[in-house]
Design a protein that fits this description.
heterodimer; A: 26 helices; elongated; B: about 425 residues; Chitinase A, domain 3; Serine Threonine Protein Phosphatase 5, Tetratricopeptide repeat; 3 domains; YAP-bd/ALF4/Glomulin (chain A); Glomulin (chain A); ARM-type_fold (chain A)
Chain lengths: ~625, ~425
């Protein structure tokens, strides 16, 4: 069957042209009705007809779009009549290549945001790419809107709950097996196909020659760059981004790698944006509508939070430093300390989120950059920057309260590494301030041990005077105010403070044995330590042991029947026994409670024993030394 | 090239500079400038380990320890277009650590540099170069002023090269305008470290604006220059460390400050202080904080009224009323804001509530009259509009229209516009004096 269009007589004959275009629409309609989809394609590929027909799309392109593309580019058509869908998709691509750009662009954006089908997403991105390539450098805002629509769509994809709650290593290995994650990654892969030609076009249209500062205004390159980095944020950031040689989750790293590499291509120097975190957090912008300063008004696109969220930028730096993507593009002349300090803003940003996956990346980023510092010490003066204080607090929160064992373990090592990276004064200041502010007694105990260790190191490595931070007044302050400190004297809850007390006793014993020459000034403060720590501790231990022993006796002899009865009553109120409301089961629950109670009481008594023994040995050291000094004097 | 032609730029032989091509002019970049240049880093055996050739030039802020020390000490000595070769001892490059795997520990390196240009640091909020900074004397300290911290600065203000002010001034950061410190200087101070001296070029919008300054003889829309030394700054109040009682104390202080600025008619600063007062105790939940929050929001509303921002004023009243729905001052002020934004019915309701709570409140009584008058006027206007509409319609139907005679009785006993306006102003002034907290 042949379909021929009636050719107008003259090229400049406008009504004839219009008629021709109208006929074209009719013809396409007829061909589609007759399911002659190849015929439609031929109209625009056939050497003889194609140029004229394509030029008609300028006038009737949108009509064809509304008539054939819009109704047929749906999930239903894709499933029931694939050839028709393919025909509509091809037609859309042709329209995108020849029809008026602005009008179609808006239609495509609507399609991207509204249509849930991933096939339609893919078809619309293909057309969008053609439109944006045609637009060239002229309209960065159009690119911005387009990318916003894509971001909105991807952000709204459903995700499994465990991404937010956190997952263990075994679950992590199987992340890509989840259907929702698979779908998400398909979107990212399609996205990659979409932006690559655009990126190529953008990069080829600019030159690196000529003495000019890097342009940070809202242009195509910067808009795309911000978008690429933004896409590294959630939800992708919650997946497994490690680029090791494993066999699973290969799509995730492939997507993250592509995004990172492409963003680096835009920036040339990946650390060009390292300043952004400090700029945004340390120096908040003074918004003032009278002066035209509002959130979106900056001439530097990278300073606009909406365009470049810090969370995503943090993941970008994670990819560079931890996963080593494009690490070779980083200029070698940056000072490692500068990189480390700037990165703390990103670490803090990630630690401020709720998701364990982000906490993990934060810790890894800091560890990686601390490793790079190697022997270089962080000067105490750096502690004037709030970012250090905030990092310490966030890290201690993770170490003390994270529900993920792995994070607590990495965190505790990192805390030690971080403190030890400071110069002597810095170490002292961090430890002193943390001991003063951290409410977690386990961490306080750990910090006391770190201080003991650094002073011990100084005792071994320095033959002359110790640094002032490890002796004299500073030593006295940290020991008396923070390490050997019982907040309520003898009445302090020793079980709650057990870790801290044990660490403090260990530290005391250590100095009593290792600093016989009193280089730290330890022996000068022993009387005060005895008065405010060891004596009240002994008294507290006596009271506590007596109390716990009595309690144990009561529980073992079943004397706490009253409490038991109350417990049973509570259980009944809570309706716990509805399912198997036998008397036995209720009793069994209480039996277990009693057993557990005994266990806990015994454990606590053991802890008191340990403290007592340590206290005894420490006091013994004090007394030995006193005897020695008396005998020397005699 | 002989050793004699190498310039020791670090003063200890750590960085030796050999000029390969003389630069143009006499100017050199100063600390704090953003410079851009090409560089090639080589090992002593000639192996290139890093270069910007074929890429964008490298940009960094000079003298801020962003790069290896050799760059900071050598680049300040370079002129534009100059090309030089640096020989850098390890302590000015990668030190004992090196940069594995390429650069071994304690390696001496060569850098070829080509200076392309520099510019002052743009610290304007919009990145539009309205505030430019050049560091004249850097400081190793890192502390910078934060809101509420006491700062001590030395200022030298210049216009067209002539000094118009020179003084030491102490103020709480964020409240500089009370001591005549322009906003541009405050913005710059936030980025300065204690001990630092900087030259600032400030455009009019962050200096004396379109009014200029008569005392200093500065015409409107003028760009000025300041040399600022940040002598000292205290640490800001670390809110997270404060106990509830301390927060309450600080909030009360801010309220007092707000009242001080209000009485000086510095409404913008007063507003800032009252907002801080409310912010400080936003997470404190007790009777005392509630009282303070109500007072702060009520006064925020008053400040907004004074600056003619009645919409924001209304929002502040709503905040106060959330805490105490029967607060007379907040109700009265919300009524005033409603009146000013032509929400007459809502205003009437507010004033009526005030009357319910305090039947002797004359100001509210007057306001009710004004509201009623305004509502009436509004209704009349609408009537007129509809009447005109019908008139037109009927004219279209070519039918004679009935004459609309004014109803004299409706106006009887009511105030004219002028009366009403006078009453509003009087009531407002009277009220402010009475209810100022």
């Amino acid at each position: 069957m042949e379909h021929l269009l009636e050719q107008p007589q003259l090229a400049g004959d406008v009504p004839a042209q219009q008629q021709y275009a109208k006929n074209l629409v009719e013809l396409v309609k007829q061909l589609i009705t007759e399911k002659e989809y190849d015929g439609v394609a031929l109209l625009f590929t056939n050497e003889a007809e194609a140029p004229r027909n394509r030029s008609c799309l300028e006038t009737v392109g949108m009509e064809l779009y509304h008539e054939f593309c819009e109704p047929n580019l749906t999930a239903e058509v894709h499933e029931a009549q694939l050839p028709l869908y393919n025909c509509a998709e091809e037609l859309l691509y042709l329209i995108a290549s020849y029809a008026p750009m602005e009008e179609l662009l808006l239609e495509l954006l609507e399609m991207i945001e509204d249509q849930k089908s991933e096939f339609v997403y893919s078809s619309s991105l293909r057309a969008l790419q053609a439109v944006l390539l045609r637009m060239g450098d002229k309209k960065p805002r159009a690119l911005e809107w387009s990318l916003n629509s894509i971001h909105t769509r991807i952000e709204s994809l459903p995700l499994p709950n465990f991404l937010e709650e956190g997952y263990d290593e075994k679950q992590e290995a199987l992340l890509e097996q989840n259907n929702q994650i698979e779908k998400l990654l398909m979107h990212y892969i399609t996205l990659n196909l979409f932006y690559e030609p655009l990126l190529k076009d953008i990069l080829s249209s600019q030159s690196t020659s000529g003495p000019a500062f890097f342009d940070k205004s809202i242009n195509r390159r910067n808009v795309l760059c911000c978008f690429l980095i933004q896409m590294l944020g959630k939800p992708l950031a919650l997946l497994d981004l490690s680029a090791d040689g494993r066999k699973t989750n290969t799509y995730t790293i492939q997507c993250a790698r592509k995004l990172t590499e492409s963003a680096v291509n835009c920036l040339d120097n990946p650390l060009r944006l390292l300043f952004v975190g400090e700029q945004r957090i340390r120096w908040t912008r003074r918004l003032d509508t009278n002066k035209g300063v509002h959130e979106m008004s900056s001439k530097n696109i990278f300073l606009i939070e909406d365009k470049l969220p810090l969370e995503s930028l943090s993941i970008f730096f994670y990819m560079i430093f931890v996963e080593g993507i494009c690490l070779n593009s980083v200029p070698k002349v940056y000072a490692p300390l500068y990189i480390f300090e700037m990165s703390l803003y990103y670490t803090n940003e990630l630690l401020a989120h709720d998701e364990a996956a982000l906490h993990y990346r934060a810790l890894q980023l800091t560890k990686c950059l601390l490793d790079k510092l190697n022997h270089e010490k962080i000067a105490a003066i750096s502690l004037e920057l709030d970012v250090h204080k905030n990092f310490c607090n966030s890290l201690c929160n993770i170490v003390g309260y994270s529900s993920h064992n792995k994070l607590r373990q990495i965190g505790v090592k990192l805390l030690r590494q971080y403190i030890l990276q400071f110069d002597d004064e810095g170490k002292y200041l961090v430890l002193k301030n943390l001991l003063r502010t951290v409410p977690h007694h386990g961490i306080s105990g750990y910090l006391a041990i770190i201080y003991k260790d650094v002073v011990a190191n100084a005792l071994v490595s320095t033959s002359t005077n110790l640094p002032t931070s490890f002796s004299g007044q500073d030593f006295r302050t940290i020991f008396l105010r923070h390490i050997c400190h019982l907040p309520h004297g003898a009445k302090t809850d020793l079980i709650e403070h057990a870790d801290k007390v044990i660490s403090s006793l260990n530290a005391l014993r250590f100095f009593a044995i290792k600093d016989l020459q009193n280089r730290t000034g330890f022996w000068d403060i022993v009387p005060e330590i005895e008065q405010q720590f060891t004596d009240p501790l002994r008294k507290g231990l006596d009271i506590s042991v007596a109390h716990y022993k009595a309690e144990l006796l009561r529980v073992e002899n079943g004397l706490d029947a009253e409490t038991e009865a109350e417990d049973r009553k509570n259980l009944e109120i809570l309706d716990l026994n509805i399912a198997n409301a036998s008397k036995e089961s209720g009793q069994m629950d209480l039996e277990i409670t009693r057993q557990r109670k005994t266990e806990i009481l015994r454990q606590n008594l053991c802890t008191f024993d340990l403290m007592r023994s340590l206290l005894g040995r420490t006091v013994e050291c004090f007394e030995n030394s006193n005897r020695m000094s008396k005998s020397c004097a005699a | 090239m002989s050793q004699a032609e190498k310039i020791d730029v670090s003063g200890d032989g750590g960085v030796l500079k050999e000029i390969l091509r003389e630069g143009r002019g006499t100017e050199r970049p100063i600390i704090g400038c953003t410079v851009f240049l090409h560089y090639t880093g080589k090992l002593l055996d000639g192996t290139v380990f890093d270069t910007t050739i074929g890429r964008y030039p490298f940009e960094f802020d000079l003298g801020k320890d962003q790069v290896i020390k050799a760059f900071d000490v050598a680049v300040v000595t370079m002129k534009v277009t100059e090309k030089c070769l640096l020989t850098c001892a390890p302590e000015y490059a990668y030190g004992a650590t090196g940069s594995p795997p390429i650069i071994a520990p304690n390696t001496t390196l060569l850098f070829e540099l080509e200076m392309l240009g520099w510019k002052g640091e743009d610290i304007s909020p919009n990145g539009d170069e309205s505030i430019e900074r050049f560091i004249l004397e850097r400081s190793d300290r890192k502390r910078s002023p934060v809101a509420g911290a006491l700062v001590k600065v030395n200022l030298i203000g210049k216009y067209k090269g002539k000094t118009f002010e020179q003084r030491d001034v102490e103020f709480e950061f964020g409240e500089g305008c009370d001591c005549g410190v322009i906003e541009g200087v405050e913005i710059a101070l936030e980025k300065m470290s204690v001990g630092e001296t900087s030259k600032l070029k400030i455009r009019s919008k962050y200096a004396f604006g379109n009014k200029g300054n008569e005392d200093f003889n500065i015409p409107p829309n003028s760009k000025v220059e300041y040399i600022v030394k940040l002598i000292d700054c205290a640490k800001g109040i670390e809110e997270w460390k404060l106990t509830e009682q301390e927060k309450l104390e600080h909030a009360a202080l801010y309220k007092i400050k707000g009242t001080k600025y209000f009485s000086k008619q510095s409404y913008v600063l007063a507003l800032k202080m009252y907002k801080k007062c409310a912010d400080f105790i936003s997470d404190v939940d007790n009777d005392e904080s509630k009282k303070l929050k109500i007072a702060a929001n009520s006064n925020i509303a008053l400040c907004y009224q004074k600056t003619n921002d009645h919409f924001e004023g209304k929002q502040a009243c709503i905040e106060a009323l959330k805490l105490d729905p029967l607060n007379i001052k907040a109700l009265y002020r919300r009524g005033q804001c409603n009146l000013a934004t032509n929400e007459f019915t809502e205003a009437l309701e507010d004033f009526r509530k005030v009357m319910e709570l305090e039947p002797t409140n004359k100001a509210a009584m007057n306001q009710i009259k004004i509201c009623k008058q305004r509502i009436k006027e509004e209704n009349d206007k609408e009537k007129q509009i509809y009447a005109n509409m019908f008139k037109k319609l009927s004219a279209a139907d070519k039918e004679p229209t009935p004459s609309t005679e004014p109803d004299v009785l409706t106006k009887c006993g009511e105030w004219t516009d002028e009366d009403a306006k006078r009453e509003v102003d009087l009531a407002f002034e009277r009220d402010n004096n009475i209810v100022m907290i």
